[in-house]
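Hi F.,

I've been meaning to write this up properly since the lab meeting, where we talked about keeping a consistent format for the predictions we share between groups. The idea is simple: the sequence comes first, exactly as it goes in, then the structure tokens exactly as they come out, then a line or two of notes. No screenshots and no reformatting. I'm using this chain as the first example so we have something concrete to point to.
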Amino acid sequence: MVKEGAPELFRRELSAPRRKPQLLAMSGVIDPYQPVERRLQLTRRCLAVLAEFRNPVSIVTKNYLVTRDIDLLAELAAHHAVTVNLSINSLDNELARNLEPRAASPKMRLAAIECLAKAGVPVGVLVAPIIPALNEHEIPSVLAAAKAAGADWACTEILRLPLTVTPIFEQWLEQNVPGKKDKVLNRIRAIRAGKLNDPHFGSRMRSEGIFADQISPMFHVARRKVGLPENGLELSTAAFQRLKGSQMELEL
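Output, unedited:
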């Protein structure tokens, strides 16, 4: 399903007099730079609206296509109104291709970090998802490569398996790493209190147990070693401006 009128609806929503400016995310579920974005340009058109209103936005993506919109991102960056996180969980081309077949290669994701950093766009690396017994050993090398490319910060997240994702992931393990399937699933259960997924809002982003206690220190030590902070730029709504009639008005 494609919402072709999204940019126009977006502009209408931001123009509403009662709407208060707030940080937006692109996106918590779907990558805003899917391959079809090259043709539809919905993400770019929405970013143009955000730049017009100077509304802050945080972007998470796995794709080099984000560099196409450096002009708009730089415009937002001038008002402390954008951060970009490139998701990289492996430098192994084969593993990355099998895990995320429609995403950019690790090399191209690092190149995107470099391009954004050189353009003055705040950019960090999201080392995620970490899959226990499969790719956690790559954390130090991913962080070192991201730092060398120009990343400003680093964060991480251990794999979550909500709703219908679980059977798809189990099938993926069976097809790609059958010898590690049981080990991976058992470690996820150990991290998620005996289950493959924790659906509860207050705890679903947390992990626990011996394997979580190994992964978290590994990430923090490696992050400090390469000199990356854990938090990115704090975005601001101070420059937000609303279109009223044919005149822009600064939101004070």
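Notes:
Residues 86 and 220 are 18 Å apart (CA to CA).
Confidence is low (pLDDT under 50) at residues 246-252.

If this format works for you, I'll send the rest the same way.

G.
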